[in-house]
Amino acid sequence: MKTDSIFYEIFQTFPEFFFELIGNTSPRASTYSFLSQEVKQTRFQIDGIFIPPIYASNLPIYFAEFQGYKDQKKNIYQGFFAEIFLYLDDYTPVNDWRGILIFTEKRLDPGLPIQYEDFKNSPRFTKIYLDQLDPQVTEKSLSLSVLRLVGVKENIAGQQARILIDRAKREAPNLNFQRAIIELIETVIVYKFPDIGRKEIEDMLGLNDLKNTKVYQEALKEGEDIGEKRGEKRGKQLGKQETKLAMAAKLLNLGMTVDQVAEITELEIEQVRQIASQD
Question: How far is CA 103 from CA 16, 202, 259, in A?
């Protein structure tokens, strides 16, 4: 199973799950954007980065790496820290940073190499074992239970997924959230059993009857409408931002200073500096 892909989908859909996992209950966590980022100069691809808004320079960037298989080369730590420091060199952010290494099982952790011992008790680095999460905590948290599902053994995954689906029906605050959680649970099972068809997965999880109900179909339609509106809004915002960035590059090429370009385009000075460094 490609754990980096499934975790990416989970955190892309519910970024708040990540902050609950690391114990960050601050309301400002909702302002973060989640993405996967390639480091320009190398083959490295960071599994996930949680970036605060531009104006929140006092909030840290979170680098997340997901490990769901045995690292035969035993270089996961070397690669993880290399990705972080290459990113910091490439993008020169003003924010502090935190590195979060998530293992589906504790046995997959080869141990922190001696060269990185300084990070052992550092607030900048945390490792989490999903199979070691306190059962009393996961029983109270639907989101942490979904994350834990990624790491459970295949022989009990179907049973655990059905239990979670029942919990989602009872605990979800609204129908759209319930639908999204159930679809996420189904996606995790699809990743775990790539040789089983979607129809068989639905039978395994008892989803056929649920998906045919009027309530579920209405929630699905409402969710699609909301997603479409959000997509349109997000597209307009991205288009406006891209226009500003293109304008900034042209103004810099004309010989304007970083401060002048930032004032004209209303971009952050740090953004303009990044554009200037790429030229």
Answer: 19, 28, 44
